[in-house]
Design a protein that fits this description.
Number of domains: 1
CATH topology: Rossmann fold
Strand order of the largest sheet: 5-6-4-3-7-8-9
Number of helices: 6
Largest sheet: 7 strands, mixed
Low-confidence stretches: none
Bound molecules: adenosine monophosphate
Shape: globular
Number of strands: 9
Helix content: 25-40%
Radius of gyration: 15 Å
Mean pLDDT: 96
CATH architecture: 3-Layer(aba) Sandwich
Strand content: 25-35%
CATH class: Alpha Beta
Structural class: alpha/beta
Distance between the termini: 15 Å
């Protein structure tokens, strides 16, 4: 887990954008963090430290911003990466799920052959808000017989209580608001 100084350093790099993509949403823009080499390395190190406490066979990332972190972690653990993509993007046979977002609805898909029964999966995304997205991803992975080893996020919006939706699973986040 990050120290208070590390959390403060990372929070300084995250930009709040009001009313994006919809009025009333304060969007946590992480591009300002990603472009800083030291911050990017710190996030990767801290996520890997948490992931090493788990028994992970593969790391799944949720499109789009989960794709930034999940492969970095997977490579450092020496395990594979699985993309969970928006509808219509994966070329082979898929299973899909439709879910509610903080802003609107969306569908996610995974390749049917991406996970074998009993595979232990760490799921990574940039941000946990209401938890709707992550809960749906858990459904997708469990439909294929995978075991959710845990969820990991850079940012958690604690006031939206997403963690309550993921009670069954270990969850880590590096930064909380
Ligand atoms: P949720 O399903 O409500 O937990 O929403 C999580 C997903 O929506 C993540 O993939 C986030 O990238 C995105 N998201 C939701 N709220 C925000 C926000 N305030 N700032 C940035 N991304 C967000």
């Amino acid at each position: 887990m990050p120290t208070m100084i590390q959390v403060a350093r990372l929070k300084e790099r995250i930009r709040d954008v009001a009313d994006f993509p919809k009025k009333g949403i304060v969007f946590k823009d992480i591009t300002t963090l990603l472009k800083d080499g030291e911050s990017l390395k710190l996030v990767a190190d801290l996520m890997v430290e948490e992931a090493r406490k788990m028994d992970v066979d593969v790391v799944a990332g949720i499109e789009s911003r989960g794709f930034i972190f999940a492969p970095m972690i997977a490579a450092r653990l020496g395990v594979g990466f699985i993309p969970i993509r928006k509808k219509g993007k994966l070329p082979h046979k898929t299973v899909s799920v439709t879910y509610q977002l903080e802003y609107g609805t969306d569908s996610l898909e995974i390749h049917k052959d991406a996970i074998e029964k009993g595979t232990r999966v760490l799921v990574i995304d940039d941000l946990l808000a209401t938890g709707g997205t992550s809960k749906s991803v858990a459904k997708l992975i469990e439909k294929l017989g995978g075991i959710i080893e845990g969820f990991g996020f850079l940012i958690e919006l604690s006031f939206l209580k997403g963690r309550d939706k993921l009670k069954k699973y270990p969850v880590f986040s590096l930064i909380q608001y």
